Automatic annotation (TrEMBL):
Protein name: MFS transporter
Pfam families xrefs: DUF5690
Keywords carried by this UniProt record: Membrane, Transmembrane, Transmembrane helix
Transmembrane segments: 22-41, 53-72, 93-113, 119-139, 146-166, 178-200, 232-252, 272-294, 301-322, 328-347, 367-386, 406-428
Keyword Ribosomal protein part of the UniProt annotation: no
Entry keyword annotation includes Metal-binding: no
Listed InterPro entries: DUF5690 (IPR043745), MFS_trans_sf (IPR036259)
Taxonomic classification: Bacteria, Pseudomonadati, Planctomycetota, Planctomycetia, Gemmatales
Amino acid sequence: MPVSERETVAATHRQSIWGVPLALWSVVAAFGTYFCMYGFRKPFTVSDYAGQPILWGLGFKDVLVMAQVLGYMLSKFMGIKVVSEMPPRKRALALLGMILAAHATLLGFALTPAPWNCLWLFGNGICLGMVFGMVLGFLEGRKNTELLTAGLCVSFIVADGVMKSVGDFLLQKQGVSLYWMPVAAGGVFVLPLIGFVWMLSKIPAPSAADVAARSERVPMNKSTRGEFFRRYAVGLVLLAGAYLLITVLRSVRADFSKEIWNQLDPAYNAAIFTQTELLVGLAILLLLGSTILIRDNRRAFDVAMALGILGGGFIVLALVGLSSGVLSPFWFMALLGLGTYLPYIAVHTTIFERLIAMTRDRGNIGYLMYFVDAFGYLGYVAVLVVKNLMKSQGTQVTGNFLDFFVPLSWGVAILCVVMLIPCWLYFVRHPSTQGTPSKDVA
């Protein structure tokens, strides 16, 4: 249901008083919540699980990653309905419950003998797959949404590296055992998580000025979702295809960064995971967060699409730089990360936000994000299956990971650009985006 007149007036009054402090509060709350969530999701990936049980002919790390991603993918498909229909008043409690449930699965992972403890990571993925959409629901539909969402997205760029460093520290410096390390890492973040979720719950609804600039965001039922998809089917399918490809590359780079670094520089320090992602995160924040300065929704959409296409170019530059010896391993991973995250984060921060704003369609980003996210992770599952089939047929992908990763990066970069250009043209020429674009109001 739309916010009531009283709620709208109250929200406008609070935002007029707090202004910048409210924006800082919001971005800290969102960044902190999602950063902490990664403490329950990613630390297990820091180990290669050498010498651990083999299940169904697969290496144990491959089994663990596939189990979690399968659960995460299923959760994304569920989220198309659950997240898009979630009433704002229930978001905070729901996302806190899901993350704490994920922590319980890590306890099960520690207590259950290998290899069957992999089933707990499937449950972990189901618990965590809808968290992003619920956090995003607190931020969308505002005049500064891009900046807030960029801050949210930087959390998972930075957290991906930090959580690997945390996991490695617990294993190497604190002597925590391999299977107890994930639940121990999660325990570090329980109290901060509760604090950040409380901060989220105190963010007021979008003001009247926000609604005028970006359109009102409302829950979407099955009928509304179907109408929206039919109206923009061609563009959404092209965008989902490009997003699927970039999700695959982003996920492989994240989950198998240890294997990539073993090939690039066997003497690397675990801090490298954090250093590259901090650099990438800062660049993404500056590039995509600055789109809030573009008041014209149509132009902001165009800029975001252009940055997504530019990301494909950065991936190509990184690959050429590596093969020619111009780039060091550090700068290769940083530039490739920037190229990967530019289109990925542009979808999160700007493309869907400004699409709804310039068409004035009734809906929310949650539906659109979970539509593309579900198929993105479906693609990642498919790549993991192919990777392991190659291994079972004698192609040692894990032993020489760059032989798998470099061709994958080339393919994603080229195909992503090939899909994004006609997608951009489709939306630019769509009847609903014609006429005078809506602008932020002062």
